[in-house]
Amino acid sequence: MPDPHDPPLRKIIHIDMDAFFASVEQRDNPALRGRPVAVGGSSGRGVVAAASYEARTFGVRSAMPSVTALRRCPDLLFVKPRFDVYQQVSRQIRAIFARHTDLIEPLSLDEAYLDVSINKHAIASATQIAQMIRADIARETGLTASAGVSYNKFIAKLASDQNKPDGLCVIRPEQGSAFVAALPIKRFHGVGPRTAEKMAGLGIVTGADLADKTEQWLLAHFGSWGSYLHGAARGIDHRPVRPDRIRKSIGGERTYGEDIWTESGLRDALESIADIVWERVERNEAQGRTVTLKARYADFQTITRARSLGQPVPDRAAFGQIGQALVDQILPLQNGIRLLGLTLSGLSSAEEEEETDLRQPELPFS
Known about the structure:
By secondary structure, the chain is an alpha+beta fold. It contains 13 helices and 14 strands.
């Protein structure tokens, strides 16, 4: 149970679209419905960007090499991604969210947090709002969404994954700590495979195992993240929904069908990526001080090089120049380059404002 002296409870909904990219493709092409579908490239060094639930039953997952996916599911149908369509559908979905609240924190094209503690229709039940949103999404887009409803962001996100696809899960305040305790630690948001492996080595396999550790112990083993883990293991998360949340980085990368072996080829490839990334920077009206180059060699060794400025990178030309200077640091090439990426981080908005307190008054939870 949350401490009675903690900030007021919120009513948080986490909406997560079901197999979003693949579901859009199945919606728009009836021949794909009920079939195992992967969005991405099917040949060479292609990677699965998204997989339908039919494909997932064979173990096909996003970020999996296409050759591996085809080995697991020989009947897998590959579809080229249509990001312009996905973005358009995402805008439709966010317009549905906005009918209920302005406190919307998008995490990606297909998921977002909503704080409905105070909402535009004065509906007392967060569960009812989640049901209305899911029904509107299905009617207006032809797609399904899963929802988690709870008193904080951490548990709402866990809950949205509980009854997928097309599911709803409600975790009330008195249920939070028990719900978290029963979950495998790998289900915790932010705990990737490597961290889960480290935790297993320390005897942490479930939320209950994590809750057995003191905050001091967690700080010693996981740094500042330990405080967050200590609270999460007890169902506590005070983070507000941030509609003005600023992305930590904007970047892009590309895997090449043939390795890059020449300096000229590497520099040309970097300029192409810089064009794409800077367009995203301008679209988000972002500013950043750190440029990071990522390169993966043919033997899968991955390296990064970064440079930080005392002020934001002013324009595309400067962004490209810094990227090229970072390329200088990995020349001459001793191996072929199979992947290249460029990222701008240390971001702020163009007109950064002070944080505001988004806490809502306490209301009966339902």
